[in-house]
Amino acid sequence: MRHNKKFNHLGRTASHRSAMLANMAISLIMHKRITTTVAKAKALKKYVEPLLTKAKDDSTNSRRVVFSYLQNKEAIKELFGEVSQKIGDRPGGYTRIIKLGTRQGDAAQVCFIELVDFDPEMAKDTKKKSTRRSRSKKAADAPKAEAAAPAEEAKAPEAPAAEAPAAAEEAKAE
Fold first, then answer.
1. Which among 30-34, 145-149, 164-168 has the top mean pLDDT?
2. Which pLDDT value is given to residue 40?
3. What is the DSSP letter of 128?
4. pLDDT in the model for residue 149
5. Element housing 163 (H / E)
6. Helix-, strand-, coil-residue percentages of the chain, each rounded to 5
7. How distant, in Å, are the alpha carbons of 8, 22, 24, 108, 128 from that of 17?
8. For residues 38 and 35, what is the distance between their CA atoms, to the nearest angstrom?
9. By the 8 A CB rule, do 113 and 28 touch?
10. DSSP state of 101
11. What's the predicted TM-score (pTM) here?
């Protein structure tokens, strides 16, 4: 029976699972976004979020604790340097999972898992106006007619000006 056993074993032994999660955490820290299956992303989220919280406190002990999980000096430098500065004021929720659909070969659910503060597209507030206003047919036609008239007037003076230099060149050639 599985009573009170809450984490996903991912069909691996304990040593294989811990090595896989450590490698995925290193890749996530170094690249800021990785593509994986949804099950692995959820397991990685539970694995890496406490490490990111630990990285906010840059002390020797916290570096040693995180190094015991990751075993990669470059990842530790990146985590305690650039990443900890970006997530310093965030109280939690450092990662985001974005589902992409199914994989072609085995139909597994695939997703992105990324560090929230490192996605510039999501940080932008691109809210459009939600109010819609309908115009009467007369009001809609009137500006079009007014806009068309100045455009025609603007085109008329340009045409003779363009012809004048051509005519002057022809006169010089003769």
1. 30-34
2. 97
3. P
4. 56
5. helix 137-173
6. 60, 10, 30
7. 10, 9, 10, 18, 44
8. 9
9. yes
10. E
11. 0.68
